[in-house]
């Protein structure tokens, strides 16, 4: 059982692209893709078609969006070497905020009020006792990354609190005024309502004499369930989500 089992990230080194100016940033792989590997993980990968790489779960649609908006030569089944080649060509690094953690979460059944364990949950809230991937992400930023596409608002928040503006390893600061302007402009670009957003979807950090722009997208696996938190107001949620993704990936590669 994962509770009490420390999982580590197997492929952070692979995502460090030399000369990268952009970064796709997530939180941590699903259970089937972490170390230490075991027979259960191996069998689950075979059963589900999971690839042992960033966003390797068949439920995650990140590489589908990447193929749609950046490089249509990337097709299923996902090939790690082809993806890495494409990332190198487009100067896009890929990484996660967490280096190691434990995984467990309990939820209350609405009918029975029973406390139920979900030991293999892929929710960010199930990740406990985290060790943060500060060094690699900070090195990527210091090496030239100026745009960061975060795969959730939680990742965007952790980028600020745990990677860039953390007390013990301070890299830079968030500019509140520039962040508000960046968010308003992007939401206007996708035809959303900035008034719908309570937790930020965009931030700008000042690091030395440079600006680093960070933008969050809804979960690629089920975006339409979250679009109201990303500015959707009285619109078709799936249409809005697709428009949001298109503009976010276009922004990343501009």
Annotation keywords:
11 strands; alpha/beta; 6-stranded mixed beta sheet; 254 residues; 3-stranded antiparallel beta sheet; globular; single chain; Uracil-DNA Glycosylase, subunit E; 7 helices
* Span between termini: 44 Å
Taken as a percent bin, the fraction of beta residues is 15-25%
Query: Could you name the ranges where pLDDT drops below 50 across 5 or more consecutive residues?
Result: none
Could you give the count of β-strands?
Answer: 11
Q: Characterize the overall form.
A: globular
Structural class: alpha/beta
As for the CATH topology, it is: Uracil-DNA Glycosylase, subunit E
The number of domains is 1
The level 1 CATH classification is Alpha Beta
Mean pLDDT across all amino acids: 92
CATH architecture: 3-Layer(aba) Sandwich
| Tally of DSSP helical segments | 7
The rounded Rg comes to 18 Å
**Helical content (DSSP H or I, runs of 4+):** 25-40%
């Amino acid at each position: 059982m994962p509770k009490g089992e420390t999982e580590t990230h197997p492929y952070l080194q692979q995502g460090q692209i030399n000369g990268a100016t952009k970064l796709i940033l997530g939180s941590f792989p699903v259970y089937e893709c972490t170390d230490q590997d075991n027979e259960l993980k191996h069998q689950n990968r075979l059963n589900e078609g999971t690839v042992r790489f960033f966003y390797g779960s068949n439920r995650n649609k990140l590489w589908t969006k990447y193929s749609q908006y950046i490089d249509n030569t990337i097709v299923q089944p996902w090939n790690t070497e082809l993806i890495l080649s494409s990332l190198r060509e487009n100067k896009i690094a890929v990484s996660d905020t967490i280096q190691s953690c434990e995984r467990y979460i309990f939820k209350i059944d609405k009918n029975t009020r029973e406390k139920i364990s979900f030991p293999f949950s892929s929710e960010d809230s199930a990740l406990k006792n985290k060790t943060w991937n500060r060094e690699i992400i900070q090195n990527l930023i210091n090496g030239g990354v100026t745009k960061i596409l975060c795969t959730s608002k939680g990742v965007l928040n952790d980028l600020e609190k745990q990677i860039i503006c953390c007390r013990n390893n301070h890299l830079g600061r968030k500019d509140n005024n520039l962040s508000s302007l960046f968010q308003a402009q992007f939401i206007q670009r996708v035809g959303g309502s900035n008034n719908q957003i309570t937790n930020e979807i965009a931030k700008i950090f000042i690091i030395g004499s440079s600006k680093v722009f960070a933008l969050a997208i809804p979960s690629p696996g089920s975006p339409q369930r979250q679009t109201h938190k990303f500015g959707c107001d009285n619109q078709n949620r799936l249409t809005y989500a697709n428009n949001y993704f298109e503009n976010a990936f276009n922004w990343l590669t501009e």
